[in-house]
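lol forgot to send this yesterday, sorry. struct tokens for the thing we talked abt
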């Protein structure tokens, strides 16, 4: 009596295993792509906010030296331009002594409006 041993060794993947692995990799890729898009969005928002801060600080220096700020400044970033609207008092109208000054820089990006306000004190003799 002879005994035949049948070997059941698999030497590859089944179609179901291949489809499941492709599905898992696709979900991971989509999550990575979403994270990358959020990174770009928030990086751009931070860059635009930092520019608004610089504009407000520059305007405060102009007011301290007795000059008016321009009402709008357009800056170019990557492939687009952003217009910053500046609301600041006219230093010619200041009274003698200390004057509380608030400078507001506003801009729009992605269908939303953003603003940055800077408050300072300016002394006029």
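and heres what i got for the seq, position by position
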């Amino acid at each position: 009596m002879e005994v035949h041993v049948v070997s059941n060794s698999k030497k590859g993947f089944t179609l179901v295993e291949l489809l499941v692995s492709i599905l898992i990799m696709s979900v991971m890729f989509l999550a990575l792509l979403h994270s990358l898009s959020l990174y770009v969005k928030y990086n751009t928002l931070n860059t635009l906010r930092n520019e608004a801060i610089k504009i407000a600080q520059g305007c405060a220096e102009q007011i301290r030296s007795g000059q008016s700020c321009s009402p709008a400044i357009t800056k170019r970033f990557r492939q687009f331009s952003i217009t910053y609207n500046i609301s600041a008092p006219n230093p010619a109208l200041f009274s003698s002594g200390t004057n509380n000054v608030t400078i507001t820089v506003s801009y729009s990006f992605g269908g939303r409006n953003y603003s940055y306000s800077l408050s300072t004190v300016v002394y006029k003799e």
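Residues 37 and 43 are 10 Å apart (CA to CA). anyway ping me if u want another try
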